[in-house]
């Protein structure tokens, strides 16, 4: 069974390019071997990630990620069973929130990822992907 989960978390320490590169490198290697696809949105001190794949694989990965000391307050926002992947082209796409245009950035500053439902988060990620703000992507 294919599932998709979304979680949010708070970064521990600054979200430097080095930290992000290391997370993405680990993600792309592991995810492509385990049939996981998704997107990692990062910036403003938060992470917002979608993971999709076989239920067992997603659960195993989520447990590893939740134990990672580079972030805290890891909270599952949404989980659903799916018939089709939404992020099928990316082992882990990357959206950098601070690259957003000024108008959208204002919105993000008032955006509390812990207070919205998973579907709103999904809509927000879709918006970001549709506007071409995915800066790092690999198949
Ligand atoms: C915000 C965030 C997102 C992550 N996403 C993934 C991911 O999609 N896939 C992955 O393999 N590791 C991801 N990681 C890294 C894992 O938490 C973990 O460090 C990595 O799987 C190596 O685990 P190990 O040290 O037990 O080998 C992420 C880490 C963070 C902080």
Would you tell me the overall average pLDDT? 84
Strand percentage lies at 25-35%
Q: How would the global form be characterised?
A: globular
Low-confidence stretches: none
Q: How much helicity do the residues have?
A: 25-40%
Q: What CATH architecture would you give? A: 2-Layer Sandwich
Order of helices and strands: EHEEHEEHHE
**How would a textbook summarize the main sheet?**
6 strands, mixed
Strand order of the largest sheet: 4-1-3-2-5-6
Count of discrete domains: 1
- Give the tally of β-strands: 6
Note down, in words, how this protein is organized:
The protein has 139 residues and is of the alpha+beta class. The protein has a single domain (2-136), classed as 2-Layer Sandwich (Alpha-Beta Plaits). The protein is 36% helix and 32% strand. The protein has four helices and six strands. A six-stranded mixed beta sheet has the order 4-1-3-2-5-6, with helices on both faces. A hairpin with a 2-residue loop joins strand 2 and strand 3 (46-54). Residues 23, 26-27, 30-31, 40, 47, 49, 61, 64-65, 68, 70-71, 92 line the site of flavin mononucleotide (FMN).
Question: Key features?
Answer:
139 residues; alpha+beta; Alpha-Beta Plaits; 6-stranded mixed sheet; globular; binds flavin mononucleotide
């Amino acid at each position: 069974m294919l599932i998709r989960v979304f979680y949010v978390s708070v970064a521990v320490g600054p979200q430097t390019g080095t930290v992000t590169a290391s997370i993405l490198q680990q993600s792309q290697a592991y995810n492509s071997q385990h049939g996981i696809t998704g997107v990692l949105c990062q910036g403003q001190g938060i992470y917002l990630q979608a993971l999709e794949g076989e239920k067992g694989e997603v659960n195993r990965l989520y447990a590893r990620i939740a134990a990672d000391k580079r972030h805290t307050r890891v909270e599952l926002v949404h989980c659903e069973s799916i018939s089709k992947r939404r992020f099928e082209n990316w082992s882990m796409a990357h959206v950098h929130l601070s690259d957003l245009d000024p108008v959208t950035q204002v919105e993000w500053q008032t955006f509390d990822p812990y207070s919205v439902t998973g579907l709103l988060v999904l809509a927000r990620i879709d918006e970001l992907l549709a506007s071409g703000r995915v800066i790092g992507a690999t198949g």
